[in-house]
């Protein structure tokens, strides 16, 4: 097991201070290491996630090599050669478990912003006190965007949020955490080969959730009530002007409809095979309220906005991968984690084998199946080698 920094490096170095997991603690176990704390319905801090991963690393028999940066992975006659900062390694098989969130996805027009506007991504943001005084433009309305917008608004800074496609979800539904419903109803167990549009499913933004002691719902209505100004998707920059697209009402309506359909799935499951009286009655939530006249442009030279935070998602970093297994968009070509190169496998990618693939508690089922594929490959290659050796 190779780690470029310390164990849990990204959780130590690339998270803001107030971050908590979206999943309740009872879901945050790893294979052979179930949650054993006294707050099962709480949400782990980044520091607690570090502790969990360190405990797990100490519990597994496989050696973990920290401070080992991989610079190249390439094919060899009998497997792969891995060039690292600690020397070269040969392996018959490789599992790529570097995840899909290695680099921030920032639009190309970011270079056109005026120099006096500071730009940050979630990797560089730590807390409101480190930002310049004045307004903040948060770009992106997924989990990261709504959490940072709320924190910055509470700090006293005026916040504008640029909203594009998003997944709206209540924190609790019928008295239970919404992620309990995702797990219990089987939504999270839907397999990748059962998903109607797999490419789209793998690109869905994270749901608008936050982990707090009071289990609050943090959707766009909540942000509006706090005083956050909502504008449309940021389309481009022209002569110092940020230009936003229209159609906010349509964007809101689509997210609301998808949420209702998901809640309908929960209700149907509860009615036919679920816990029945153990949960509250079905609920429905107010539609997302659109601003009467949202701004379609903002002068970035006026001083109104001092900081832009790009909460626009992430992308994998495969610059070290010297094997032709990437598609035109730079994504791994794989079938349920079996990469398009003999003996190469992947784990921890969105909807790898199930909808829960990228969650801590969702990796185990994927890992067992992918490692079964790996073991089968080793068995086949060993038998083929034995037959070759036996030939006269």
Summary keywords:
18% strand, FAD/NAD(P)-binding domain, five-stranded parallel β-sheet, alpha/beta, 8 helices, 392 residues
Tell me about this structure.
With 392 residues, this protein is an alpha/beta fold. The chain has two domains: 9-102 and 315-390, 3-Layer(bba) Sandwich (FAD/NAD(P)-binding domain), CATH 3.50.50; 104-313, 3-Layer(bba) Sandwich (FAD/NAD(P)-binding domain), CATH 3.50.50.60. The protein has eight helices and 19 strands. It has helices at 9-13, 46-59, 143-154, 178-184, 198-203, 220-226, 248-272, 363-390; strands at residues 70-76, 79-84, 87-91, 94-96, 103-104, 118-120, 135-139, 159-162, 172-173, 176-177, 229-231, 234-238, 241-244, 297-299, 305-310, 314-315, 334-335, 338-339, 344-346. A hairpin with a 2-residue loop joins strand 17 and strand 18. It is globular. The chain starts with 8 loop residues before the first helix and ends with a helix.
Query: Radius of gyration from the CA trace?
Result: 23 Å
Strand content: 15-25%
Q: Name the CATH architecture of the largest domain.
A: 3-Layer(bba) Sandwich
Strand tally is 19
Q: Provide the CATH top-level class of the largest domain.
A: Alpha Beta
Counting DSSP H or I runs of 4 or more residues, the number of helices is 8
Q: How many strands, what sense, and barrel or not for the largest sheet?
A: 5 strands, parallel
Return the structural class. Answer: alpha/beta
Inertia-based shape: globular
What is the helical fraction, as a range of percent?
Answer: 25-40%
């Amino acid at each position: 097991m190779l780690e470029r920094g310390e164990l849990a490096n990204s959780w130590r170095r690339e998270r803001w201070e107030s971050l908590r997991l979206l999943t309740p603690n009872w879901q945050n176990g790893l294979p052979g290491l179930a949650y054993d704390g006294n707050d099962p319905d709480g949400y782990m801090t980044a520091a607690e996630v570090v502790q969990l991963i360190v405990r797990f690393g100490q519990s597994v028999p496989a050696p973990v090599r920290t401070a080992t940066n991989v610079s190249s992975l390439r094919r060899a006659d009998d497997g792969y050669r891995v060039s690292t900062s600690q020397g070269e390694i040969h392996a018959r098989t490789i599992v790529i478990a570097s995840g899909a969130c290695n680099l921030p996805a920032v639009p190309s027009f970011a270079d056109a912003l005026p120099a006096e506007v500071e730009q940050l991504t979630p990797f560089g943001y730590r807390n409101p006190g480190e930002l310049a005084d004045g307004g903040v433009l948060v770009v992106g309305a997924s989990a990261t965007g709504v959490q940072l917008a709320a924190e910055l608004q509470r700090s006293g800074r005026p916040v504008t949020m640029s909203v594009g496609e998003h997944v709206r979800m209540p924190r609790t539904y019928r008295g239970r955490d919404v992620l309990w419903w995702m797990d219990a109803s089987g939504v999270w167990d839907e397999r990748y080969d059962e998903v109607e549009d797999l490419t789209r499913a793998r690109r869905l933004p994270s749901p608008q959730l936050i982990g707090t002691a009071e289990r609050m719902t943090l959707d766009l209505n909540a942000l509006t009530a706090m005083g956050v100004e909502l504008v449309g998707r940021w389309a481009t920059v022209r002569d110092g002007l940020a230009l936003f697209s229209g159609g906010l009402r349509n964007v809101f309506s689509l997210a609301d409809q998808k949420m209702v359909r998901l809640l309908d799935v929960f209700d149907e499951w509860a009615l036919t095979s679920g816990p029945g009286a153990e949960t509250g009655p079905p609920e429905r939530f107010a539609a997302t309220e659109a601003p009467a006249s949202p701004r379609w442009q903002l002068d970035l030279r006026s001083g109104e906005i001092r900081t832009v935070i790009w909460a626009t998602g992430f992308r994998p970093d495969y610059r070290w991968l010297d094997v032709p297994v990437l598609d035109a968009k730079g994504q791994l070509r794989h079938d349920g984690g079996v990469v398009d190169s003999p003996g190469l496998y992947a784990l921890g990618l969105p909807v790898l084998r199930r909808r829960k693939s990228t969650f801590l508690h969702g990796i185990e089922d994927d890992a067992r199946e992918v490692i079964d594929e790996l073991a089968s490959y080793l068995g086949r290659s060993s038998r083929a080698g034995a037959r070759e050796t036996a030939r006269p």
